[in-house]
């Protein structure tokens, strides 16, 4: 069964301060994300209508955009489970954002299936512009030593979305509780997934520098959370995320897409205790602080 979840809200203009104390550019001057419209801006402190600004070192970064454009998640049941994208939406809303979130999932699917699926292509073409599109591959694919199918699929999507989205995020997933053949180890599978997504990101950047490629490292946060939560991150099958696992994923996506600490949010889904939410935000925040700049390719 193919599911499409669309959350719509009005676009609202958000006043963006340009002072060094409140600007993402000021705190992360080296973050370099091409955004349509930035190139024409010459002032090193003023921001244009795209929320972009230049700084003395000549680099540009994505400021908290005035127009909060739509975010699209494409994947399988790892994305769909527990309505993760809805949790992402509520996290963003609780932090004062005004997101538009859409999700296209096909259970057990590979990205190759999405690339040839008319429903997925229709969702992508349904808007003239996406702020960010998040791609989630089937975890087993990227835990092998090579993944030509994944690379071909993402290169295809990269060509498809050029001019429609400035930001391409790769959803770095978690390893299975008991790993997979031939090692049957969660840690080994997680390590392979991390290396796999990093290799794919580098390949995408080498192919097309007009689209920013970033990793949303949910799997890295999962690895940090594993010692504390262990089995609680999974459902009984040891693969799919529990409510706790999906909440952690949504927190990481929020931080890496908006460039903000998860402590900016105060939303907590049912099924996650206040103490668990606090612990998960701490883990997501550590991941954000360690990898936010590193995960832009």
Main attributes of the structure:
alpha/beta; six-stranded mixed sheet; two-stranded antiparallel sheet; 8 strands; globular
Summarize the structure in short.
The chain is of the alpha/beta class and 297 residues long.
Report on this model:
- The structure is a single chain.
- With 297 residues, this protein is α/β, with parallel strands linked by helices.
- The protein contains eleven helices and eight strands.
- It has helices at 24-27, 77-80, 84-94, 111-115, 118-125, 139-142, 148-161, 186-207, 218-229, 243-258, 274-291, and strands spanning 3-7, 52-54, 60-62, 71-75, 101-105, 130-135, 165-171, 212-216.
- The longest helix is centred in the middle third of the chain and has 22 residues, at 186-207.
- It starts with a strand and ends in a 6-residue tail after the last helix.
What does the secondary structure layout of this molecule look like, with pairings?
Elements: E1 3-7, H1 24-27, E2 52-54, E3 60-62, E4 71-75, H2 77-80, H3 84-94, E5 101-105, H4 111-115, H5 118-125, E6 130-135, H6 139-142, H7 148-161, E7 165-171, H8 186-207, E8 212-216, H9 218-229, H10 243-258, H11 274-291
Parallel strand pairs: 4-5, 4-6, 6-7, 7-8
Antiparallel strand pairs: 1-5, 2-3
């Amino acid at each position: 069964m193919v599911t499409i979840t669309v959350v719509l809200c009005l676009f609202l203009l958000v006043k963006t301060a340009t002072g060094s104390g409140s600007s993402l550019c000021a705190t992360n001057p080296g973050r370099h994300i091409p955004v349509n419209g930035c190139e024409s801006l010459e002032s090193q402190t003023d921001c244009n209508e795209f929320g972009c600004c230049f700084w003395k070192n000549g680099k540009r970064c994505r400021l908290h955009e005035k127009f909060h454009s739509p975010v699209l998640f494409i994947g399988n049941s790892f994305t769909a489970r527990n309505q993760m994208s809805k949790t992402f939406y509520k996290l963003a809303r609780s932090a004062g954002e005004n997101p538009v979130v859409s999700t296209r999932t096909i259970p057990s699917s590979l990205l190759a299936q999405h690339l040839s699926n008319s429903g997925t292509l229709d969702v992508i073409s349904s808007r003239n512009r996406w702020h960010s599109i998040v791609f989630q591959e089937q975890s087993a694919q990227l835990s092998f030593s090579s993944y030509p199918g994944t690379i071909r699929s993402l290169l295809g999507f990269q060509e498809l979305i050029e001019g429609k989205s400035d930001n391409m995020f790769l959803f770095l997933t978690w390893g299975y509780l008991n790993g997979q053949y031939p090692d049957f180890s969660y840690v080994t599978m997680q390590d392979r997934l991390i290396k796999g997504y990093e290799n794919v990101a580098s390949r995408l950047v080498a192919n097309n520098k007009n689209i920013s490629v970033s990793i949303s490292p949910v799997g890295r946060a999962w690895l940090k959370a594993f010692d504390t939560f262990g089995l609680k991150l999974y459902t009984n099958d040891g693969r799919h995320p529990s409510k706790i696992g999906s909440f952690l994923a949504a927190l990481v996506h929020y931080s890496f897409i908006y460039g903000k600490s998860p402590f900016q949010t105060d939303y907590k889904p049912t099924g996650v205790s206040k103490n668990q939410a606090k612990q998960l935000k701490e883990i997501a925040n550590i991941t954000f602080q360690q990898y936010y700049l590193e995960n832009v390719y």
